[in-house]
Amino acid sequence: MSLRSSLASIFRQPGVLVAEIAWRWLFGISALALAGFAAVRLSRALTVFPEEQEMLASRSPILIAQAILEIAHRARPVAVRLGIAVIPGILLLWIIATTLGRGYVLGLMQSRERISSRWFTLSVLNLLRVVTVLLLVIAYFGCSFATSLVINPYDPNYALGVLLFLALFAISFAAWSIVHWIVSTGCIYAARQGFGTMRALGATMQLLREKPGELFSIAARNSSVRTVVAIVFTLIALPPLLLHRVPLLFWTVEIILFLAYCIVSDVLLLARLAGYVEITERTPAVAVAERS
């Protein structure tokens, strides 16, 4: 399924596009509100002494760094407490939003037959998506720690260290990408074919073995177009920098451009989803799941 046909199928069902943008933006606004609340609480609890203000204004990199370290050391307990409260809240909010929002969107898409969605399965799969992201963060620090074990601290070879870290993290990221894609695509089977968790994951892995070329083609084309779109919007956002002396006008233009980019990106991501859905509809999913 080409990107053009995916976009055409989306625009034939404007309700699908509206629902997709709605749940994404509602989650984004809610997450920003929680993050803003944490930032305000942190700023109120943060105290900057006069001598630290002088160090920050000294234009000396060493003094500035020292002041930042001292301020960060005092702010760490408050930041940790806020992080423990806010980060799980944002993750839980995302699981709820993507389960209800994406499940509703998948149900709206055209289908040969109507099958009830497995909402519990969708929530489990989205929880697994969060777990995979957390595992990627752990892998990042694990790669850093593994690199530190190899590098001699008394005679460090920074170039070798960077190459080793990039190699380790590239392997971790490749493995994570496959696992995360399987879990994410399993949501299609849960929402449209009514599969349970293990059956949806098994069907997705079988689909990946049977249709790797088509799946890669959809992902590659969509990723290429989104990259071009990001570059275009970046270039468009450069001329308004001349308006920096008029803050209200400058930020208004930049925010409008950013929101426009978000809408275009959401449309392209929904087109990729439509392409995946079309492949799963053409593949005998029940037979696939039974063989898994």
Helical coverage, percent range:
over 70%
Give the CA-based shape.
Answer: globular
Largest sheet: none
Strand content: under 5%
Oligomer status: single chain
Number of strands: 0
Task: Tell me the number of helical segments per DSSP (H or I, 4 or more residues long).
Answer: 10
Using the CA coordinates, give the radius of gyration: 23 Å
Structural class: mainly alpha
Q: Structurally, how many domains make up the residues?
A: 1
Order of helices and strands: HHHHHHHHHH
Unreliable segments of 5+ consecutive residues? 286-292
- State the separation between the terminal residues, measured CA to CA: 25 Å
The average pLDDT is 87
Give a description of the structure.
The chain has helices spanning 3-11, 14-45, 50-56, 61-108, 119-150, 158-192, 197-210, 212-237, 247-282, 285-291. It is globular, with a radius of gyration of 23 Å. The protein contains 10 helices and no strands. Helices cover 84% and strands 0% of the residues. With 292 residues, it is mostly helical. It has one domain (3-291). The model is unreliable at 286-292 (pLDDT under 50). The longest helix has 48 residues, at 61-108. Helix 5 (119-150) packs antiparallel against helix 6, helix 6 packs across helix 7 and helix 8 (212-237) packs antiparallel against helix 9 (247-282).
